[in-house]
Design a protein that fits this description.
Blueprint (H helix, E strand, L loop, with lengths): L5 H16 L3 H16 L4 H23 L4 H35 L6 H4 L7 H16 L9 H9 L12 H8 L7 H33 L6 H32 L17 H7 L2 H20 L7 H20 L3 H19 L11 H23 L3 H10 L6 H30 L5 H17 L13
Helix pairs in contact: 1-2, 2-7, 3-4, 3-6, 3-7, 4-6, 7-8, 9-10, 9-17, 9-18, 10-15, 10-17, 12-13, 13-14, 14-15
Length: about 475
């Protein structure tokens, strides 16, 4: 069930009305839990069954850690094995299945259709990290598993977040689930701008730009100019699409009385790779920082063998960003994308440029931004490309501009991309230089609402990150 579908509108209105009619917190949570499972299992009911089974497993693992501290380490490894095993199987099975089918065929065995392709459950990557964060916090003693099964299950499956985040932490969302909630008019006033911007960015910008760039990445041998246009277009599309999902998710949560974390903070203004990841997909970045980067760095620093300082400084960002690439999907493009950012962070650090680096001269800031933005576009090119071989072939063997017709299409596509970039630039300028109470903001939201209604149709595309 997509946020932009008519089915979801009816679904949410019913849930919203029943939720606030239920005065007691326990009944509110029970309703939200039921709604979350209906939402998640709407297309494939077995998704909900798998979600429920994995939730029960981690709930009792956490309780077991509290009841039997001497078994904490074993239970932690059990949870890691189950969660990462399930995630790895569904995420990477299709990556390895061609080799499996080929091996069976070489043995004279016919591959069963089930072996050929397995569907990745939507949101698996996101709710797995939420559960692992809970288990790791209980394991290291920073969180006590005093929560009821109802509250924990709702924390894992909370429907505004389950498909594509934000990845809320247990210490943030669980206390809100356990608190009494009463309707306040401010919930609506805070949620409305997020919902308007989310729908506008998704329906008007992201889905329209997708129609421009998808044909480019579907070409067998695009020109270098066309490749650049496609990379710039996807740079716009993925920001508009993913931040739109987060805006809508946060707006829906606000209407239900919950404050959820910000996930984007103008990432394309970053001057360094570390700053980019402090601004992009913030909840994933902080999760990887707290549960991968810091533990690995501490382990290297405590190592009995004296390790060179460059190893201690370089290994954590490299491993963390490779984990990020693997988390995003099965394919060499994702691994290369994550590895690229890992190498960039290491190189910048070796040059003495940290995440908070900001030169005083304007021309230095401009140059640093231009270099970093070029890396961002290159990264999204690798991320979106059909394969690394496809990128290499175009970069090193493709023609530069192509025939006159190809140049005309490229220029037209670039003009369309720049046109749909303007609303986001205007919104950024309004937020920075114009007071929130100004009528200019109201005018912007009014125009955005009208444009969304005009562009909205029954064939809206799924959000990009629902595939991860």
């Amino acid at each position: 069930m997509s946020f932009t579908s008519f089915d979801f509108l009816i679904f949410f209105l019913v849930v919203f009305a029943l939720y606030w009619l239920a005065r007691e917190r326990r009944w509110q949570n029970a309703l939200l839990l039921a709604a979350s499972y209906v939402f998640y299992g709407w297309v494939h009911p077995w998704y909900a069954l798998m979600l429920g089974a994995s939730t029960l497993a981690d709930y009792f693992v956490a309780r077991g850690m509290a009841a039997r501290p001497e078994r904490k380490r074993g239970l932690l490894w059990l949870s890691l094995l189950i969660n990462l095993g399930v995630l790895g199987f569904f995420k990477y099975y299709n990556f390895f299945s061609p080799a499996l089918v080929s091996s069976l065929n070489s043995l004279g065995l016919e591959a069963d259709p089930l072996l050929v392709r397995i569907l990745l459950p939507a949101g698996l990557s996101f709710y797995t990290l939420k559960k692992l964060g809970y288990i790791l916090d209980v394991s290291n003693g920073t969180l006590k598993p005093t929560h009821t099964l109802l509250d924990f299950a709702l924390y894992v499956s909370f429907f505004p977040q389950i498909v594509a985040g934000p990845i809320d932490r247990p210490r943030s969302l669980l206390p809100q689930l356990e608190a009494l909630r009463v309707w306040k008019a401010e919930y609506f006033y805070q949620a409305w701008p997020l919902l308007v911007m989310g729908l506008f960015k998704k329906v008007v910008i992201a889905d329209t730009v997708r129609g421009v760039i998808d044909p480019i990445f579907g070409l067998r041998e695009p020109t270098l100019l066309m490749l650049l246009v496609g990379a710039l277009g996807f740079t716009l599309q993925i920001l508009a699409d993913f931040s739109a999902y987060t805006d809508i998710a946060r707006g829906l949560a606000l209407l239900l009385g919950f404050q959820t974390p910000e996930n984007f903070r103008q990432p394309y203004l970053a001057l360094t790779p570390t700053e980019f990841w402090n601004r992009w997909h913030i909840t994933l970045s902080t999760w990887l920082r707290d549960y991968v980067f810091f533990p690995l760095r501490r382990a290297l620093m405590r190592s009995k063998r004296a390790l060179p300082d460059w190893v201690i400084q370089s290994a954590p960002p490299l491993v963390t960003m490779l984990v990020s690439g693997i988390w995003h999907g099965a394919g060499w493009t994702f691994i290369a994308w994550g590895g690229m950012y890992g190498l960039l962070i290491v190189i910048y650090q070796l040059l003495g440029i940290r995440g908070d680096w900001r030169p005083s001269a304007w021309w230095q800031r401009t140059l640093a931004w231009a270099v970093m933005f070029s890396f961002i576009v290159l990264g999204w090119l690798i991320f979106r490309a059909p394969s690394l071989g496809w990128v290499a072939n175009v970069l090193f063997s493709g023609s530069q501009f192509g025939a006159q017709g190809e140049r005309a299409v490229a220029v037209f596509s670039l003009a369309a991309i720049l046109l749909y970039t303007l609303p986001l630039l205007l919104k950024s300028l309004l937020d920075r230089y114009v007071k929130e109470t100004s009528l200019l903001h109201s005018l912007y939201y009014s125009i955005a609402t009208i444009a969304t209604v005009i562009y909205l149709n029954a064939s809206a595309f799924d959000f990009i990150y629902t595939r991860f």
